[in-house]
Amino acid sequence: MDIILKRDTFTNKSTIGTLTVNGTFECYVLEDADRGLKDTMSLDEINKLKVYGQTAIPYGVYKVVVTKSNRFSILRGHDVYLPLLLNVKGFEGIRIHSGNKPDDTLGCQLVARKKGIDTVSESTLAFNQLNDKINQAIKRGEIVTYQITK
Fold first, then answer.
1. Is the pLDDT of residue 73 over 80?
2. Three-class DSSP category at 97
3. Each residue of 12-46: pLDDT tens digit?
4. pTM of model > 0.85
5. What does the pLDDT look like over 42-65, one tens digit per residue?
6. For residues 121 and 113, is the Cβ–Cβ distance under 8 A?
């Protein structure tokens, strides 16, 4: 499964883009502010530009797996399994989940049905649909990739 996020709306607080799955529109994604990070940069370069909790992850291609999220499991009081992007240089625990504003991200990918300025909505609907597709692809033995472009 090929997931592609094309970032296209930039403010000093957030980045919003359009997400496709195998070439078909799926939803919108809200992230922290884009600071021009690329996966080809050194870790030192990334760390110099990164502002903790306020920086979108580097442009690049990442493998997606589904694992238990300790943070969300504690918050919700039961085991929660979420998509996780692997090997994101300079970042840890980057997941795809629901949320509505930059404060909800901490670098993660917030999926939603509608977009505004520095905000998205109908996030749970978008997440449930995308999460089902990712889980089905993994069960079929497919490799799921997540590419971020501009």
1. no
2. strand
3. 999 999 999 999 999 999 999 999 999 999 999 99
4. yes
5. 999 999 999 999 999 999 999 999
6. yes
Phi, psi of 65 (to 5 degrees): -130, 165
Is residue 124 within 8 Å of residue 98, measured between CB atoms? Answer: yes
Those residues with Cβ within 8 angstroms of residue 102's Cβ, 6 or more apart along the chain or in another chain: 13, 14, 30, 31, 32, 33, 54, 118
Q: CA 55, 56, 60, 62 torsion: positive or negative?
A: positive
Residue 84 Cα distances to 12, 34, 93, 114, 116, angstroms: 26, 20, 7, 23, 25
Report the distance separating Cα 61 and Cα 2, nearest Å: 10
Cβ burial, residue 15 (10 Å; 0-12/13-18/19+): buried
